[in-house]
Specification:
The chain is α+β, with helices and mostly antiparallel strands. It is 29% helix and 21% strand. The strands form 2 sheets. Strands 1-2 form a two-stranded antiparallel ribbon. Strands 3-4 form a two-stranded parallel ribbon.
Length: 84
C-alpha cells in the first residue's frame, strides 16, 4: 500500500472482514430490494451488513427478534452484522 493508507483484517465470530469495507445498510433487518439469497451471490456477497438498533427496536421489535432467535435468524444471514 502506498502512502499512509492502511488495510487490515478484522476477525469476527461470523468470519473475517477486510478493511476498509463498504457495508450495505439493513436498517430494519432488510436490504431494500434484495433477498438474503440474492445478497449471497458471489458478485455481491458482503462480508458485513449494518443495521440500526433504534429502528430494529421499533420494527420488527425486540420481542419478535428474541422469539425468532436473534437478528441473524430474522435476516437469514450467516455472516457478520454490525448495529449502531
Amino acid at each position: 500500500v502506498d502512502g499512509r493508507a492502511r488495510a487490515s483484517t478484522m476477525h469476527l465470530p461470523h468470519g473475517p472482514v477486510q478493511l476498509p469495507i463498504f457495508m450495505p445498510v439493513g436498517t430494519k433487518g432488510t436490504i431494500k430490494g434484495l433477498s438474503s439469497r440474492q445478497l449471497d451471490r458471489p458478485e455481491l456477497s458482503p462480508q458485513i451488513i449494518l443495521g440500526n438498533t433504534y429502528h430494529l427496536a421499533l420494527q420488527p421489535g425486540t420481542n419478535l427478534l428474541a422469539e425468532l432467535g436473534g437478528l441473524h435468524k430474522f435476516m437469514n444471514w450467516p455472516r457478520n452484522l454490525l448495529t449502531d
